[in-house]
Amino acid sequence: MNRIHFNEVVTRDGFQNEPDFIPTDAKVALIDELSQCGYAKVEVTSFTSPKAIPMLRDAEEVMGRIRRVAGVEYTVLVPNVRGAERAMESRADELNLVMSTSETHNLANLRMPREKSFDGLKAVIELAAGKVPVNVSLSTCFGCPMEGDVPQEEVLRWAARFAELGVRGLTICDTTGMAHPAQVARMCEALQQRFGALQLTLHFHNTRGMGLANLLAAAQQGITRFDGSLGGLGGCPYAPGATGNICSEDALHMLQAMGYETGVDLERLLAVARHLPEILGHDVPGQVAKAGPIGQLHPAPASVAELRKAFA
């Protein structure tokens, strides 16, 4: 089986949707704990306008205070050239750029047409060339809740435009949790045929309960990079009923149980996950942190010993 490289997005994708500001000290402490768990990447924060995403208004301070661990890439989301300049000054290891493959979703989420988004992101890619790697995340690749189906060829067309600009990686996002495993398998096959030289990452949400099934479909097609969010935090404001990203610890537990090598210390990660509700002040969707991994056994009730004797 292929080695899986897992990316943690909780302090960006997860925290930006929280109703209350997470203190900077708590963010830094959480990232430092996650850095010790064996992730390939940690998406630390977003260098957007504090007015747009007030929950991440401490981006520079967080980036300046975290203890970086060798082998972990600290990536950040940037929306434009100014955000990229701030991120590069903060020594980001990678810039993650975002636009939607759905025109309607792009207008609703980024407040501009796709072509205008592309032009702005192209300027960021040119600024970063030779200085810091760039990843482009394409949203709504498996469907838009306002337009419906997004044709696979449309996704591949946008992917090709960014690949031609020399980006290092592409993240294909099921932003609103509309994907199903058969669709994912078809998409992954096409992506690897056309863009196999790039870092290909899949980003799933669990809006309709198919997140882990979709991840497994992608892994079985040979995809080796995935995003996840601790506790299953996150979500999209344009996905009715959204429950957030796939839960990192649940996904890693499944992959490891199936024999995949992930490089992540699951026991250590579960200890971090169990602390997350205390940071947030509310429960989270993740399951394995509550139930324990499948290898964690429990003592039998006292009555079992008596029954064994009775039926001996």
Could you explain the architecture of this structure?
With 312 residues, the protein is α/β, with parallel strands linked by helices. 42% of the residues lie in helices and 14% in strands. It has 13 helices and eight strands. An eight-stranded parallel beta barrel has the order 1-2-3-4-5-6-7-8, surrounded by nine helices. α4 (81-89) runs parallel beside α6 and α7 packs parallel to α8 (181-195). The protein is globular and about 75 Å long. The model has no long low-confidence stretch (mean pLDDT 96).
Backbone shape: globular
Question: How much strand content do the residues show?
Answer: 5-15%
Helical element count? 13
Low-pLDDT ranges: none
On the 0-100 scale, what is the average pLDDT?
96
In short:
The protein is an alpha/beta fold and 312 residues long. It has 13 helices and eight strands.
List the helices and strands and how they pair.
Elements: E1 5-8, H1 10-14, H2 24-35, E2 41-46, H3 59-65, E3 73-77, H4 81-89, E4 94-100, H5 103-110, H6 114-128, E5 134-139, H7 152-163, E6 169-174, H8 181-195, E7 199-204, H9 211-220, E8 225-228, H10 248-257, H11 266-280, H12 288-291, H13 302-310
Parallel strand pairs: 1-2, 1-8, 2-3, 3-4, 4-5, 5-6, 6-7, 7-8
Name a few traits of the molecule.
single chain; 312 residues; alpha/beta; 8-stranded parallel beta barrel; 8 strands; 42% helix
